[in-house]
């Protein structure tokens, strides 16, 4: 994450620590302690909401960094027949840089990415919940809880819809990233965290890997595992998800983690729809790694560069998404590249082949999204206060020139909800 520049010396071994919310029941505490003992001993598309609308018009929910040109979350009506987007609503909340919708489209959750590197050590980031009326596009604030860390930057909802997880990029009072787990209540509110897992250690890149930095939390397609990508330690940590509590809510797998190249800085992970493969962006080296996936285990298949041969500028790989049909993979690269790189996916072995690249027409394309029909790709240029809507060719995977432009302050994340 380019915004984070804190450099704190760290010479602790690669390990975990866990905190359990004191307000939990005795039974929950016992389950949490079971997880803690286990740890000490061993060391897509917008979460798919409702059916496609008959008229092809979706609600597009946009998360931003707040400032002079942005006040929070924005809702647009997006016509998939024309690619036109019209703003219909907004909600004030600070730095909702990542957003997610419940599967039924009734609720929207956002991070509140605070306090940043220069904030007070005792201050924590937040998670905010909103009721969402998809027909009108209106958001209604429900509640906000502490993210139990600093700089929360990612959200996932468990496959059963019971829990929300966030990646806390840093923890000011205790340098090192974490992920936290929050129960989702029947009325849409998010409960206080019931579990916080800290990673410890670092990597070779000074200033970026002086300690752990969890950058994403992604559930496997089978719903049995959570993968936490740690940019600081160059590891993809794997946790078994057992909501019945029989083995603790989340417990480390036997393998515990998958290593990637030292200094690469793993950021975001996405799984293929059939669950056979997974793809990872590594921010610090601007690469995409393909993995074979099987029952909680990732096996590396291929590493491909995102930059052109001979490229000498700054890099900063960010988001990664598959097309709805799974035939193409897209990844954004910031730094001096500022582009979307397009790969064809071999369905037989999961390997990638670069087929094109498209300038984002701005600075720092941190996140992007492909609409559910696969006809459009929208990318936000965080440092240019613009988003562009590119028409996408489903056959070639390429993005057409002359995109539609949207003026919006510091756009970051995009999620789709059907109003019908």
Describe this structure in words.
With 420 residues, the chain is mainly beta. It has one domain: YVTN repeat-like/Quinoprotein amine dehydrogenase (Methylamine Dehydrogenase, Chain H, 7 Propeller). Helices cover 4% and strands 47% of the residues. The strands form seven sheets. The chain has a five-stranded antiparallel beta sheet with strand order 1-12-11-10-9, covered by helices on one side. Strands 4-3-2-29 form a four-stranded antiparallel beta sheet, with no helix packed on it. Strands 5-6-7-8 form a four-stranded antiparallel beta sheet, with no helix packed on it. Strand 15 and strand 16 form a beta hairpin. The two termini are 36 Å apart. The N terminus is likely disordered.
